[in-house]
Design brief:
Length: 582
């Protein structure tokens, strides 16, 4: 101790830590969560996880053709819907790397995930001003179950870019509706371009386009009548230009193809649809289940989600209906509890276009006027309801609920609006009633809210751990496939016939040194997404056959070999069988 200076004991009169200290702490923790989320996904990519397939390889082949200047496809090969934005993003990576690779194909999707994470954090601060809640949202989105990381990393068409675009639309709508000055025309153009672009890429995000667009109409009607509206419309046409031009030139309606893909031409019972859409779908699609299935205890989220939707809508609606001239508390900690539906959720500030400025942000506005924030929260909840409803009434929910739960990936955009009411109760508890008494429900509100948040984090973390455990097996399977490609090259095989889930993956992995035509399990021609490969294989003198060991196709080829001994030479490697015609 320095002489002459007496150390003061810390007690009730001791100075509290400066607010800036807490801000720096939550800032560092948020940065760690972001790095953990990106690092976890990069580790998965290095281990070739999640496992690839021929659909992703089809997007990779489109990127390869774009990089070579051979083709510039509008749609995913073999269909008239789902734009090829991922192929155009990966093409420069292939050109710089000197060739295609699975990692090169997925690096743009990893960048899209990072953008989604950062924009979600920004949106959360805009709507709530609570940095600790922003940390919670980032931490949840940093986790990733099997279904979630597949949606975010596999370049199979649409899913990696939808969430980033949906959150960007919400952030732009917040700034525009709140009247944030500067670059307003650029923001209008960006919102319109993203809306049009998503119409081309994948219409699953349209509920978020419509609801955030409704907020803009409600708050900016006069501005939309001028240059802003004209610029928004022109930018939307530019974003949707590939779709519009292709439809005009070919006279085809992409909506028909989308409806067919959603199961509109199939049939499923309502019991199966409700089970897949309302029970399995939310738990799988939002990241609370083990790879490929949901344990019974993991389905609790499906029961909590309707309550969160109702609570989020009710609190946002009451905040939106609050008289604009009514003043209220000026910090999130002083706002009324959303559990008490007699008052709105979130901080109540004077309504208007002005934003609350956080001094720690050096003038950067983080919390918009309460009516704007409430309108965006309501828009996010309604978009989630529409997304969930549309999926439930589709036949896909009843026929293939495990795989088609990817259609609910956009629900993660609404996470801040869903959890904000629970967070406010968990952080400060419900307000007492007008008589000053707390009933049993009000007394239990905070423990229930804390338990819900803990269960959400815990279940998502457990699903993430289960997903990470599959990475070694995925890497081993990818190594076996690489050995297959190497063996075909050594044998001088150029043309092969194989099943759908083998063909384009094999062609992409070999950079088209081996081309493949699809056959079914009865050795009949199958569905070729890129017809040029079929023509080349049909024109070959003696194409080989490739089949996974133990598959129905391998059994059919073994039967042919037994029926006609000497017609085929068999080469076996780990996991694969190659049949060479003599």
């Amino acid at each position: 101790m320095t002489a002459g200076v007496r150390e003061q004991p810390r007690g009730a009169d001791s100075p509290r830590p400066r607010p800036g200290t807490r801000l720096r702490l939550v800032g560092w923790l948020t940065a760690v969560a972001v790095l953990a989320g990106v690092g976890y996904r990069l580790w998965l990519l290095v281990n070739a996880a999640p496992p690839t397939n021929s659909d992703e390889a089809t997007m990779g082949l489109a990127a390869l053709h774009i990089a070579r200047g051979e083709d510039f496809p509008v749609w995913f090969y073999g269909q008239q819907y789902m734009g090829t934005l991922e192929a155009y993003l990966a093409a420069p990576v292939f050109a710089l790397a000197g060739g295609p690779s699975l990692l090169g194909l997925r690096l743009p999707t990893l960048a899209l995930y990072l953008l989604f994470l950062l924009l979600s954090w920004r949106l959360t601060l805009r709507l709530t001003g609570d940095r600790w809640f922003g940390l919670l949202v980032v931490a949840l989105l940093a986790l990733g179950s099997d279904r979630v990381v597949k949606n975010q990393l596999i370049a199979g068409g649409g899913y990696p870019e939808m969430n980033a675009a949906g959150v960007a639309l919400a952030v732009l709508a917040v700034d525009l509706a709140a009247g944030r000055p500067g670059w307003r025309l650029a923001r209008w153009a960006a919102w319109g371009f993203l809306a049009g672009l998503m119409l081309w890429v994948d219409p699953l995000v349209l509920p978020y386009v419509v609801t955030t667009g409704a907020v803009l109409v409600g708050f900016c009607r006069r501005e939309l009548w001028g240059a802003a509206g004209a610029l928004l419309g022109a930018a939307a046409v530019l974003g949707a230009a590939p779709l519009l031009l292709h439809s005009l030139l070919n006279g085809r309606n992409p909506l028909h193809a989308v409806l067919a893909a959603s199961g509109a031409n199939a049939t499923a019972g309502w019991a199966d649809r409700l089970h897949g859409g309302l029970l399995l779908g939310p738990s799988l699609g939002m990241g609370f289940c083990a790879p490929g299935r949901c344990d019974t205890w993991q389905l609790w989220w499906a029961l909590a989600l309707p309550l969160l939707l109702a609570l989020g809508a009710a609190t946002a609606w009451r905040a939106l209906r609050r008289p604009p001239t009514e003043a209220g508390p000026t910090s999130p900690a002083d706002a009324a509890s959303p559990a008490d539906l007699a008052s709105p959720a979130g901080p109540a500030l004077p309504a208007g276009p002005a934003s609350l400025v956080d001094p720690a942000d050096a003038g950067h506005p983080v919390l918009v006027a309460p009516r704007v924030a409430a309108a965006i929260r309501l828009a996010l909840v309604l978009a989630a309801v529409v997304t969930l409803g549309a999926y439930t009434v589709s036949s896909s929910a009843g026929l293939t609920p495990v795989e088609s739960s990817r259609y609910l990936s956009c629900l993660l955009i609404s996470l801040p609006a869903l959890l904000w009411p629970v967070w406010t109760v968990a952080r400060r508890g419900p307000r007492p009633s007008a008589t000053g008494r707390r009933g049993l429900g009000r007394t239990l509100a905070r423990p229930v809210a804390l338990a819900l948040l803990a269960a959400t984090l815990g279940t998502a973390a457990q699903a993430t751990w289960r997903s990470a455990q599959t990475a070694p097996a995925t890497r081993a399977a990818e190594a076996r496939h690489a050995e297959l490609v190497s063996t075909l090259r050594q044998l001088g095989v150029r043309q092969v016939r194989a099943g759908y889930w083998t063909c384009n993956r094999l062609t992409f992995a070999s950079a088209e040194q081996v081309v493949c035509a699809v056959v079914d399990d009865a050795l009949r021609p199958g569905f070729d997404r890129y017809p040029a490969y079929r023509r080349e294989v049909d024109g070959a003198a003696a194409p080989a056959w490739v089949a996974p060991a133990g598959s129905p196709l391998a059994n059919a080829l073994d039967e042919r070999q037994r029926a006609n001994p000497g017609a085929l030479d068999l080469v076996t490697i780990d996991g694969w069988r190659i049949y060479l015609p003599r």
